[in-house]
Amino acid sequence: MTRTRRNFLKTVSAAGIFTCNLWPPVSATTSRANDRIGVGVIGLGIMGFGHLQHLTFNRDNWNIEVRAGCDVYDLLRERAADFVQKQTGRNLVTYNDFRELLCHRDIDAVFIATPDHWHALMTIEACKAGKDIYVQKPISVDTYESRLMVEAVRKYNRVCQVGTQQPSWKEFRDAISLVRSGILGK
User: Fold this and answer.
1) Which residues, 6 or more positions from 105, have their beta carbon under 8 angstroms from its beta carbon?
2) Does position 164 have pLDDT exceeding 80, yes or no?
3) Is the pLDDT reported for residue 179 higher than 80?
4) Given CA atoms 128, 134, 140, 146 in this order, what sign does their dihedral have?
């Protein structure tokens, strides 16, 4: 499959970055026998679990399957596995170490929803492992890390998207308009 931003968006639009169904059903082609795009979620706290829910609820429309989850906290891994089991009847493979998830051959793309200081390392390692990436904002803690991430994406021919969805939400656009109107003063 050609690695393009459009294909990546089709692959991972379920991230919660598009909370309503703005995208048509995915017709991506993967190397899997069941023709599903395999997804792993790294970080299963509030944001990661939200991604897991969106991905699971929309698995058929988006032609995806959440195959693995990772978190250092046992209870979050258990909650994610229980949720996927109840919703799909399938077992979610869980990991304590993100590097083990990246070795999972059936994963095509990963969602990184960990504390900010982990974003750069995990993104670079995901690129090396041949995974496409959706990473929560902020992309990194400084511009040096961001540059290393961009270099890795280019070097390994991966596609990466950073979660910057909020500025496009109606509430944020309305707030910007309100501030710019001058009604609030200086």
Assistant:
1) none
2) no
3) yes
4) positive
117 falls in which pLDDT band (50, 70, 90)? very high
Model confidence pLDDT, tens digit, residues 15-67: 433 332 333 333 333 444 557 899 999 999 999 999 999 999 999 988 999 99
HEC readout, the chain = CCCCHHHHHHHHHHHCCCCCCCCCCCCCCCCCCCCCEEEEEECCCHHHHHHHHHHHHCCCCCCEEEEEEECCCHHHHHHHHHHHHHHHCCCCEEECCHHHHHCCCCCCEEEECCCHHHHHHHHHHHHHCCCEEEECCCCCCCHHHHHHHHHHHHHCCCCEEECCCHHHCHHHHHHHHHHHHCCCCC
